Amino acid sequence: MDEARVQARARRTTVNALLDGYGSLSVPQLLATMAPEFHHQVLPESLGMKPRNREAFAQHAAGIFSIFDKFRMIPKSIIDDGPGSAAVVHARMQGTLKGGAGEWVNECVMMIQLSRDGDQVVGIMEFVDSAKALEMARKHAPDDFGCGSTEPKGSRGEGKNQGGEDETTDPKSMTLLFGLGLVQLLVVLFILHWAQSWVF
Predict the structure, then answer these.
(1) Closest among 125, 16, 27, 128 to 75, alpha carbons compared
(2) Using CA atoms in the order 160, 164, 167, 170, what is the torsion angle rounded to 10 degrees?
(3) Which one of 62, 72, 99, 180 has the fewest beta carbons within 10 angstroms of its own beta carbon?
(4) What are phi and psi of 196, to 5 degrees?
(5) Omega into 142 within 30° of 0, i.e. cis?
(6) Distant-in-sequence, close-in-space partners of 77: CB < 8 Å, separation ≥ 6
(7) How would you write the pLDDT of the chain (200 residues) with one tens digit per residue?
(8) Do residues 124 and 41 touch, judged by C-beta distance below 8 A?
(9) Whole-prediction pTM value?
């Protein structure tokens, strides 16, 4: 087997291990795939979530894992960029919240930078659903979740702001939703650009 195929197989194995790490709800298992210089960024930037190094990401993951009884990262598509030592994953995030808080369903697109040999994850740029991220910050997430929303969990009614208006009419929410649409367009263009790459 030539070197390119060996590296492609290594990237696929590493990406699968990363997704399994999220589903394990185990921080050590999740970190097992990550290089010492690992960095993570949640996008769009309008969410106000700062970039994290490996240590900060581990703390963030521990907080998120603590609110779930079950969690799965289900890939809907995975695109391999061999020359760039990278992969793009579109995934459905599905879990059961603790305390009878019900099911949580979301989706993301992760642009994953891997080591040249494909054995480690060097960085992740993760595009998330802005509306769901704000909902998580308000209702479920630990205090150090890092999202731009500064309101305490449970401070708003379901779908209403303090003035009794639907939160989707709030200017900040509308800006975030517009930003999400723009991000999704950019992600689609990126995926189309790399469509000629190997597809797992």
Answers:
(1) 16
(2) -160
(3) 99
(4) -80, -5
(5) no
(6) 89, 90
(7) 588 999 999 999 999 999 999 999 999 999 999 999 999 999 999 999 999 999 999 999 999 999 999 999 999 999 999 999 999 999 999 999 999 999 999 999 999 999 999 999 999 999 998 888 888 878 876 665 666 544 444 444 444 444 444 444 455 555 555 555 555 656 555 655 555 454 45
(8) yes
(9) 0.73
pLDDT at 169: 42
Q: What's the chain look like in SS3? A: CCHHHHHHHHHHHHHHHHHHHHHHCCHHHHHCCEEEEEEEEEECHHHCCCCEEHHHHHHHHHHHHCCEEEEEEEEEEEEEECCCCEEEEEEEEEEEEHHHCEEEEEEEEEEEEECCCCCCEEEEEEEECHHHHHHHHHHCCCCCCCCCCCCCCCCCECCECCCCCEHHHCHHHHHHHHHHHHHHHHHHHHHHHCCCCCEC
**pLDDT of amino acid 149:** 46
Q: For residue 141, give every residue at least 6 positions away whose Cβ sits within 8 Å of its Cβ, in sequence order, or none.
A: 63, 64, 67, 147, 153
Q: Which two structure tokens, joined as six digits, stand for 47?
A: 């969410």
Single-letter amino acid code for the residue at 73: M
Measured in degrees and rounded to the nearest 5, phi and psi for residue 181 equal -60, -40
CA distances to 9, 79, 97, 175, 193 from 106, rounded to whole Å, are 28, 20, 13, 20, 25
